[in-house]
Amino acid sequence: MKPINSTKLQPLSWVIFSSRWMQLPLYLGLILAQGVYVILFIKELFHLIAGATNLSEQLIMLAVLGLIDVVMISNLLVMVIVGGYETFVSRLRLEGHPDVPEWLSHVNASVLKVKLAMAIIGISSIHLLKTFIAIGSLGAEGSNFTEAGVMWQTIIHMVFILSAIGIAFTDKLMSDAVTEPKAAH
Fold this sequence. Notes:
The protein has 185 residues and is mainly alpha-helical. The chain contains five helices and no strands. It is globular.
């Protein structure tokens, strides 16, 4: 019996299959973007610590929510970098490593989509919460917020939630369709 790795691909198949490596610079770019978020986090944390005695509770809460937002976006980047690379480019071969994320053992394109949708909802929730906390200046001269802006932010958040529900429902339908034929045998 011939090992799977020794199977020679036809030239066109080899080119198509190898094209997945064109995504490598994209993932490396996301790693650099995550570095930018680390710098942003440190800068915002420094501002929070430096102003801790002078800032109001509301401003401290907004700063902390900003830090949480940066962390959530960084988590999203990790999911896309690790999960996307593992799913679409090449196996990372992390079996047995003590720091392997639990979710990586069952990641596939469908799971990744649902996790990304949930992360986007979390990020959107933080932005909406920041808006609701800072909304006290609504309608005032020079305010950063308008009724229409807050309404649209809320509508967009609800669309994210509905989209995530739709993605999860579609994923469930697809996984049920795959398991039904197996159960019939």
